[in-house]
Amino acid sequence: MKLIRELGTGRYLEQGENALFLGPPGVGKTHLAVALGITACEQGHRVLFTTAMGLLATLGKALSENRLEDRLKVLAQPQLLIIDEIGYIPIDRQGANLFFQLISRRYEKGSILLTSNQSLGAWGDVFGDPVIATAILDRLLHHSITINIKGESYRLREKRKAGLFKSPVSAASHSDA
Predict the structure, then answer these.
(1) pLDDT tens by residue, 56-112
(2) What is d(CA 166, CA 14) in angstroms, rounded to the nearest whole number?
(3) What whole-number percentage of the chain has pLDDT above 70?
(4) Tens digit of pLDDT for each residue in 77-86?
(5) Which phi-psi region, left, alpha or beta, contains residue 16 (left: φ > 0; alpha: ψ -120 to 50)?
(6) Which domains are seen in the chain, by residue range?
(7) Nearest to 59 by CA among 43, 75, 47
(8) Fewer CB atoms inside 10 A, N or C side of the chain?
């Protein structure tokens, strides 16, 4: 909680630092990211929220229309870029390269807050290439706060309480984060 309160001050934005929320589905990563995005807006910062798949679709379309440079410029402008759900769907080589270009463009210039259900060690599989995953992580982690969130999905916990299934789904089956 102390780190979340620190992020709420917005100081990390002034220093161009990143924040990574890692953990299994349903533990509140997106809720925290949205809350911090709203807080950043209230503090006068420009914020953009996107899902990883939405971001990659946008970048892929821009590439095919020869507008990638313009799209990267737009995505480099907000002081905070929130990228939700890295790792839920594998990213192909083109997507990994586009994601790397965006991370490189924002490196030490603008903050990124991202959520992932995968441990950082699994990002080689997420991006389909351990070399590009390492390059992405090198830039993201250089100035960052990483928060590992553990626990049972609040959605599944409610279903279990309602008697729809007896035992909680193991968080280890979703992620080793």
Answers:
(1) 999 999 999 999 999 999 999 999 999 999 999 999 999 999 999 999 999 999 999
(2) 47
(3) 93
(4) 999 999 999 9
(5) left
(6) 2-173 (3.40.50.300)
(7) 75
(8) N
Task: Tell me the C-alpha distance between 148 and 80, whole Å.
Answer: 20
Residue 175's φ and ψ, nearest 5 degrees, are -165, 155
Alpha-carbon gap, residue 64 to 74, rounded angstroms: 17
Extract the tokens encoding 70. 């313009």
What are the DSSP E strand ranges found in 94-172?
A: 111-116, 144-148
Query: Per-residue b/e over 102-140, b at no fewer than 16 CB within 10 Å?
Result: bbeebbeebbbbbbbbbebebbeebbebeebbebbbebb
| 3-class SS of residue 113 | strand
- Indicate if the alpha-carbon torsion angle 87, 90, 95, 97 is positive or negative: positive
